[in-house]
Each structure stands twice: as structure tokens, then as C-alpha cells.
Amino acid sequence: MVVVMSPDATDEEVAHVVERVEAVGGEAFVSKGLVRTIIGLVGDIDSFHHLNLRTLPGVADVHRISDPYKLVSRQHHSERSTVWVGPAGHQVPIGPDTFTLLAGPCAVETPEQTLAAARMAQSAGATLLRGGAFKPRTSPYAFQGLGVRGLEILAATREATGLPVVTEVVDARDVAVVAEHADMLQVGTRNMANFGLLQAVGEAGKPVMLKRGMTATIEEWLMAAEYVAQRGNLDVVLCERGIRTFEPATRNTLDVSAVPVVQATSHLPVIVDPSHAAGRKDLVVPLSRAAIAVGADGVIVDVHPDPETALCDGPQALDGPALRELASVCRRLPPVLGRADAADHVRRG
Amino acid sequence: MVVVMSPDATDEEVAHVVERVEAVGGEAFVSKGLVRTIIGLVGDIDSFHHLNLRTLPGVADVHRISDPYKLVSRQHHSERSTVWVGPAGHQVPIGPDTFTLLAGPCAVETPEQTLAAARMAQSAGATLLRGGAFKPRTSPYAFQGLGVRGLEILAATREATGLPVVTEVVDARDVAVVAEHADMLQVGTRNMANFGLLQAVGEAGKPVMLKRGMTATIEEWLMAAEYVAQRGNLDVVLCERGIRTFEPATRNTLDVSAVPVVQATSHLPVIVDPSHAAGRKDLVVPLSRAAIAVGADGVIVDVHPDPETALCDGPQALDGPALRELASVCRRLPPVLGRADAADHVRRG
Amino acid sequence: MVVVMSPDATDEEVAHVVERVEAVGGEAFVSKGLVRTIIGLVGDIDSFHHLNLRTLPGVADVHRISDPYKLVSRQHHSERSTVWVGPAGHQVPIGPDTFTLLAGPCAVETPEQTLAAARMAQSAGATLLRGGAFKPRTSPYAFQGLGVRGLEILAATREATGLPVVTEVVDARDVAVVAEHADMLQVGTRNMANFGLLQAVGEAGKPVMLKRGMTATIEEWLMAAEYVAQRGNLDVVLCERGIRTFEPATRNTLDVSAVPVVQATSHLPVIVDPSHAAGRKDLVVPLSRAAIAVGADGVIVDVHPDPETALCDGPQALDGPALRELASVCRRLPPVLGRADAADHVRRG
Amino acid sequence: MVVVMSPDATDEEVAHVVERVEAVGGEAFVSKGLVRTIIGLVGDIDSFHHLNLRTLPGVADVHRISDPYKLVSRQHHSERSTVWVGPAGHQVPIGPDTFTLLAGPCAVETPEQTLAAARMAQSAGATLLRGGAFKPRTSPYAFQGLGVRGLEILAATREATGLPVVTEVVDARDVAVVAEHADMLQVGTRNMANFGLLQAVGEAGKPVMLKRGMTATIEEWLMAAEYVAQRGNLDVVLCERGIRTFEPATRNTLDVSAVPVVQATSHLPVIVDPSHAAGRKDLVVPLSRAAIAVGADGVIVDVHPDPETALCDGPQALDGPALRELASVCRRLPPVLGRADAADHVRRG
Fold it and tell me: Does Acyltransferase appear among the keywords (chains A, B, C, D) (predicted)?
């Protein structure tokens, strides 16, 4: 931490800062410049937070130097992690050595539609099934998902296809029932800062997929992962899904740079959701190519057997030719980047 | 709703759109232009949403024309509303005719600190006490609030000062206990799209203060209010608290325009939180002046008897001279704009 | 300046940084922390820029501590400045003690329309006339202004009304002719970073109104003012006109916080343009109130005798009742904030 | 164009809109809904702009339906274009069938540094040399480029290496001299809306590379290209270089989605600048991979023989191993996407 004094700060004010830092066991190095004095702090950063240094007289600014996250950082865990998803005997990897395709319907509507979408996903090379039973919707008048009935349909679809299931949980009160049916719990973009929910999924004993808040910085996103990790669960996969910007041509702006930025600072796997980022079917394949090429550990897309009748996000769901093109991309591109197909590395022991 | 066909759409594709609209009981008016055809839809807009018009062949775009909110709209409720906060016999108004100052500590720390802050608030003219017992924090290592003990301190402080209490609830599971102790439930910026929480506070029987999500559009904010209203609770006060922009000089950018924009489309009262918007004590008074002048129905600020030792957001808490200046502003400015002091309109019947 | 070394930086890498800093005559204070080493630099900051410290091995980050602007800073010029606009014998102040209303048509269309708008402006209390002869337009097919003919109309209108004229210059090649006809040169939002133009107006011998780039940080805006000042012209008035955000309800988001932020760091006057920020006539009066209340040194608005036929930005131009309301606000509100009417302080010597 | 009337608009107000539209030769189709009336306009859209429909009584909103650009649109020019850069006898393509690497130093400093950087670029597979002689800098105290001397160095480097030269022009007054020395004129991000400059390069007879304004929408960017095209120059290459968002981990956020969005609506080639987007050397290679994979027609990067001593943007310049990695990516990835190396398609006739 660095404390920057204002140009007119007095020696007493500088001494007061030093004194407060030393009172909590820290060290303070004073550098007097021509115009300003700066003070470098050494010691336990958490103890400094309680000092409210920014409120002290003469202080102009306080810069944090270290990253605020610990458990998810590469600093003490330099190897990138692999998260395994699925029941014992059929665990699919998401990590640095493989490429994983996750696909399925935005919302579970009927057993037939879900099974058809799962078959589509599987034929395109997906090894994990996504599908929403609890849907957070901007309007209270929009379809809110089938709830527990949707979870049952997802579980039945897993039985029929062998695909482990990823589904969203939107309320801490539902974590237990979702964890009972699903193989991986998704925390959505609107709930990234729902700290009670993060703590609840951290204790649920299943891997977690944590979507980036549509307006969260990468640091805030990693702090949200830290909330999960702090409850003992390090099986967290991050999912970039676009951020809110001024550009109206796409629903959100896919921040592909976030993938290498995260990989440089955190050991957690990171995947990309081009469907929700763009909100346009015609961009899903090009953005999937970009995601694979930038180094994402996986891609998650919406598919629907009949987008025209989809109850949620039909305009972005892939079908027919677009899905075949995506399948081709997912087969050809990852090997060029040195990644194996996750399907060939399922843990069946 | 207006459907815009792409320039190369065929007559069959236009006919297909018309057919789908009529199948759900709507009317479709076709306007053939030189380059494009546009189709105006008339009828029940909710039934059109399920048509996924955007996925139909030949459709380039779909524009929504009407506002998606109903209960909170001025369309069928043209008078602006007043929300009354407090126990029977001491209800403080927030509405179009008065100006209400809400003040108190960001976080409840001790009975003494809370009482001192409440006395400061009261001496500055505040008629409602704010204070946090459950604190959503970006870091799991930061102070998370005293929880139920904090609620008890707030209730005791109300006994001592007579000020009704506004406090945040961050988890649907806590709504009952918070509603038991507080006079108004606050939903914070990070939870604006936590739909389960919105529904729970909608059923709690207490007025709600709904902060704008720091990256929510005004329409999304009003839709969040609609979630509360839909559960039968129209006693919602909106609170603008700054939005996330590229400007780093302030923590967020206070969007004062949101006040008249909301007032033009919704009957709900709207107040402003300059403390959290700016994150800087020196801006709280000027931004409070701007908020009053633009037409806000109230202002909510952080005060702390000793900002240097505050456990949360010390740098933005007012004390001493700044608080006196705020008090002077709140006395002098609202009358120029035709507003009475809420203190003179407490409902004591 | 503070150099933050990465956690695994070696002693040699630290020594290399120190060496480079000392080679250009600076001093380097090394603080070794538990995890990282930080190095505080003291000396001539401009010489440090050429060192490319960020590229040196072992360097994680470099934080600038001081403000990069000099001539426009309050650091060595703590009194806030007043800029005087107009010919000798009729100079209107824009500064900390007065409130100045600038008004006129967005675009000069005809002598009659310009004169009518100027009379409207004058009757509302404006002491300076704004009007565009050179118009920067997003579309090459939109009305681009009357050019030199427009300047002549403005000059004739000044003769008729006595109001000094503010008009935009969009091209460095036009600075001379604009300076010949106008009393103040406006640099528009799209040209805030047109450095050649900034230098040209810096040498033109007339006061400058510098609008904030719609996506410029406050620091970048002050650096643009520094470009003008560096050419010997300190008569610069800053104008906040809204920044680009994700909110679609207004054309831009008026950043009222920018006013006190600028006033805290720069001695230059700062005014507000609510017309272009909002792009909506119904918000101009409330936002003008907010601008005055937050402490702006003036407000600039669009007026038009017949908005329906305006060739540019008709939807935001004030007329009739709205203009009378604005006049009333400009009379009543500034005195509450301790400001005199600029009309009473015109320098006529 | 669609005019949306407010819910309380009268029949007279509707009739008034229709009348105004018909007065300029347009047709107006009225659709009366349950709540609102909407009016679809058919005819010459430019004539409607002058009507100021938004200011008419009873009008709530006006939606534009068609794209505002014409010459750069694919609507009447459905084949994507190739732009050829270089002197007769050595013209390098940028277009849909090839992949073009442009590389060179951010700023021209000396003949030796420029030649060394050009050799690096060439060895990495670049077929066009970039280099800045006129540098727009945020600070008036930063290195502003060598000007005409820099142009001469670039021309000499072209002699030595055979690489055609791309260089930025920042002022309309410099267009002639830059066009004399360079093979392609670059308009930088800060000048994207400098309409006088756009018109000047449109008349200079050389291909133009138009960078996206860092806060410009894709539509505004295409309108800027329309300004160039309108002066008779359709040899415009668009360059995505990152947009300003709230994320601080990268200097700007590279908007890879812009590539397929532009390609869907405009026939102009589009390339990507990952160096300026990220501002970090470690992201240049991953973002180049993403750019190629998403479908960019080329990539432009900064290289420097000695980044530590670079006078401009040293932290993002590639050297040694990173450059070799980029070269390998540019060799292996484009063929997977069906693109040939531009080097194999130089036009030498």
C-alpha cells in the first residue's frame, strides 16, 4: 500500500500516518519528493484497511499495490487448475490441457425439447449439458423457469444421454435442491455479487460456474470467486459472458482480453459464453472461434431444436447449419492451440 | 411493437409474421417502404413476446414501443405518490411535496457510535435514520456487519431518538427478521436484480427503498420496482446512487438526470445518495445541492461521529463543519423549489 | 511516481530500476515489503517518462502520483480565475463570483432566426450569445452550417443586441477567420483531443470555451486545456456537456460531479451545457437547476424561435414557457449560492 | 422511420405529423394501437430529418429504421472489398481472401531504429510497415513525433526494405505532405470525428486506414468512413483498436465482435490493432490469435528493437520471442480459416 500525501501536508500529518501504521504492527517508509511525500506501507494489508488512512488529515490518496484475492490467486498456486464435473465414474475436465464444449437450451421447457437439445449438443461434441430451470428475468411477467420440475427433467436427460448437467441457482434457499440434481452449479451474471448465494454454493459440495457480472471488473469477479473458495470450494470455473458498454450492436461486448488476464493472475479455469454476450445467432460461431483462439478452456452455447418457439433467448440459440459449423470449429481449432478434446479425457475411475 | 423486415425479405416472410401475430389475437399493419417493409403490431404485448419474432426468417429487428412496466408507471396513476415511513403515530413522508433528509452511519458498529451518529443526523435535520446491519462487501475478508445484533441496536436507537429506521437486507432469508426491527427495507445496488429478494421484500409489509443497480438502466430499475409492486407492495422509494462509467475521479458518476426521467414516467418517489456515488466527503455537499435542485424527494447521506475509525466507507462520512453545511443547504434550498420540510408533515394520527 | 515490482523480482532488477532513475538525476527510495518491493521516485517526472520503467524486467506496475497538468492546475495558482469575454468596453465575466447565462441557436440559419433567438436569449437574462456557423455533424449528409456567412450573421447580431458572441471552430484552418468575427472560440466535444486545433486556438488571442470530450476523463480534459494554455492562452472556460454511458434515456449523462472536481484541482472556470447532455427539452430546466446548485460558473443552452423548423438539434431547444422558467431559475437560484448576476458585473472600462 | 405518438396524443396531432410528412413527398402509414398510435414513414429519409418530427406536439419518440450510411454499406455493394496498398508494381492486398500483417514502431525516432524495426517486422511476415511521424499525445509535454523528418525516414526505410508505408496524419494541413511520402494515410482514434480531416484524406488519392474512435459506436465509425467515401475515396480499411469501458486491467477493451458486425453491414475490410487495445505486451499475441480467428482481414502491431528506450508506448511493443510467437501464429492460423498470406498475393503488374 502506498499513501500519497497532499502537496501541503505538514510533517505532523506525515508523522501521524506513520504512527497509525506502526500501531497495528506495520512498517512505513517515507519518501519526501519535491512536491509531495509518499509513504510505502509494509505488513499485513488487512490490518491497514481498518485504519481508514484516506480520512486522515493531509492524505490525498491511497493506492493498493497487491491483489486483494488470495485463494484463487496464482501467487501461491502457480499451476493452473482443472475442475472435474460429473458423477464419480464420468467426470469431464475443464482446464488448461483440454477444450470443453458445454451446450444446451437456455431454458428447460419440456422433457422432449430438453432431450432434443441435449442430443443436438452431444452431436456437436458437447460433453456437458447446460439448461436453465430457475431463470432470472428482467420482467416479472416473463417466463421464470420450471423450477424443481426443470431440475427433474435435466436429471432425466442426464440419464438418457450421459451428459453431466450444469444449471443456474438464483436463490440461496434453492442451493440444496439444485445441488441434489445437478453436477455443477451456475451463478449467473446478475448474482455475481449476491454474497449470500456465493457462500451457499461454496458449501454445497459441487463445482461452481461463476459468470462475470455484466458490469464487474475482473478484480471484482475474482473476489466473488474468493467468496466461494473461502467456504472451502476451489472447484470454480469462471465464465466471461460480455460486459456492458455503450455499443448497441451487440447485447453486451465480449471481453476476450479477460481470458488471458484471468489466466495470468488466477489458477482457475475460464470459459466463454458467446451466446449471451452477443445476443445474436450470427455472431456465436465467430465469437466461439475468437474464444478458443484467445485461450479459453471451454465455450458454452445455447442450442434449441426450434428457436422460433423457445421461451427464452430464442434469437441467440443455434440450430442446424450454425451448430454444425460450431462443431467443426471445436474439432479443428483447439488442436492448433495445443489442446485435447475433453471427451478424450473423461475420468472414468 | 414494430417489426422491421430486412431489405431482401420476401412477401412470404412478411405474410408469415402477420400470420403469427394474428394467431395470438393481435393486429399487424404492414407499411411497405422503398427499401424495407415495417409491420406495426397492435394488441397484448405480452403475448407477442412469446412469438420470438426476432428469430423469424426475414426479420431484421424488433422495436418495443411501450414501456414494459405497469404498476409503477404514471400511465394509469398520473399523480406522483408519497410513501410514509415509520410506526403508526410517527410516519415520515417521502414524496413530491416535501424534502426528506435520511442520515446515519454506513455500518452499525456499537450502540454508542450508532446513537452518536443518530444525534448528529437529527441535529442536521434528518427525519429518518439509516444504518447497516447486514453489509454486502466486495471482499469476504472485510467487515460484514453485526447482523441481528445490529438490528437490535438500530431499534434501540429509534427508541432513544424517535427516528424511524431504514436498513439494508441482503438475503431473502433475512427479510422477516429485518422487517421485524426496521421501518423501511433497503435493497442495495448489488441486489437490484436479485429477483427472489425483490419478491420477498414485496411481501414483507414494510416500505422499500430500492437503490439503482450501479450499472442498471432506468428501465431495468423500474422493472425491479415492478417486481416488488407485483407482490402487492407499492410503497417503493427509488434511490439514485451513481452509475459505473469510465471516469475515475469519483467512485461512480451520480446520474442526476435520472431524477426527472423517473418522475416523468413513474409515480414513485425518488431520492439521491451522494455519499456512495462520489465516495469522497468533499463532494457530498455540492452533490446534495444538485440533487435537491434537480427535484429529488430526499437525500440520504453517511454520517459518522469519528470517520477515522469507521469500519466501512469512512472516507465519505460527513462530520462537523460539512454536516452543518449540509444542514444549512437542506433548510434553505428546498423552499426555493417549493418543497416543505418533511419534519413539518410527520403523520401522527 | 511509484514503481511496484512483481513478487518474484530479483535484487538485480530492483537495482537496475534505481540505476536508471539516478541516471536521469532522480532519487529512488526502496521499500521492501513481505511480498513485494516498491520504489518511490523523487525528481523531475517528465524525465522519468522517457525511462519506460514499465518495460524493465521485474516491474509489475508504475503509478503516477502527481497531476500531469501544470499551467491550469491550482497548485501554483490557487485563486480561481475569471475569464472576461467581449470587446473592450463590454466584457462579460465567467468566474467564481458571478453566474453567467449563455444562450442562442444551435445553428445559425438566417439573420432573422439568429436575431430572434438572440432577443429570446437576452430577455431570459443571457449576457453572451452562442450560435454555430461551422457544425460538426455525424453524417456527411446533414446540414454542416453556413460557415463564414454564419460568422457574419453572428457579428451583425452582436451589433444589434450588444451580446458578445461565442462560436465553434472545427478546423485549425478556420481559426483566424473565426477569431476575427467572434469574441470567444468554442472547441467542441468531438475536437477536444484535436491537438492541432487546441494549439491554434491557443495562439488566436481570444478566450476559449473547451467542451469536455463526451468520453474524456476529467484529467484528459484538463490536459487538453493545458495544450491551449501552453500556447500562452490561459483564458479557457471548461464546459461539461455530458459523458457517454450505457443509459439510453438521455443522449449523454450529465456529470455534475465534474464541476466540483474540476474546481478542486484547476483554477479555470467551468460551466455546464444541459441541452446537449440531455438532448431533451424537458430536462433542460431541471439540469440547469442542478448545474447552478452544484456550483457551475455558468450555463449554456440552446434556444430557437421555432424549434419545429430548426436545422439542428430542434428537440432540445427551449422556447416560450420553458425559457421563462429557465430565466426565473437563473434569477432566483444563484443568489442563494452567493453568486451575483454577470450582467451586473460587465467590465465597461 | 417510425414515429411513436404519446398515449394521450390527439387525432389532430396525428394528422399534423402525416401532413408534414406528405408535404415533403413522403407517405405515412398510421397504425392505431390500444394504447398508442404509431406512424410508419416511407420515402426519402434525408428529407424527413429536416422535419424535426421529435419536436411536434404529441410525438413521444422517433425510431430510425434504415442504416444512415450508403457508400460504405453492403446494401448496394454486397461483395466485400479488397484495398490495395503500395506503389504501382508492389501493391499489398487487405481484403476477404488474404491475411495481412502490418508492423512497425509506434513512433519513428531515428533512421537506424526505424530500419531495425522494419527488418523485425519483415522477418515476422509483415508486408506493410507502420510508423508514426506525427504523434497525437495526451500531454503537450510528451514527444510529438519527428514530423516531416519522420516521413523522410519512413520513405527511406521503404526504399531499403520494399515495404509500403502506413502513417498517421493528425491535421488537415499536413495531408498533402503525408500523402507525398506514405502509401496509406492513417486517421487515428482521436481524430475519427475530425470531419475536416476525413474530407481532406478523402481527396488525397491514397488509401486510408480509419481507426475506430475509442468511444465511437460502430455506426458512428461507418459514418466517419462515409465522410471519406463521399469525397470519392472508397479505399478505406477500418481498424478496431479497443473501446473505452470500465475495466481497468487493459488500457481499452478490444471489441472483437465489431469485426463480424462490420463485415455484415459494410463491404470495407477491417483489421485489428491489439497493441493499442491492450497496452500490455503479454496480451498482444493472444489478442492477435482472437482477431485472426474472429475473421479480421489483418492485424497491426507495434514492434521496437529496444522497447526499453522507445519514445512512445514502449510497454506494448513486441520484440524477440513474443514477435517470433506472433509470426508463428500468423503463419498457422489464417489457413485454418481459409485465408492466404497477403505476401503471396502482392500485385506486381
Answer: no
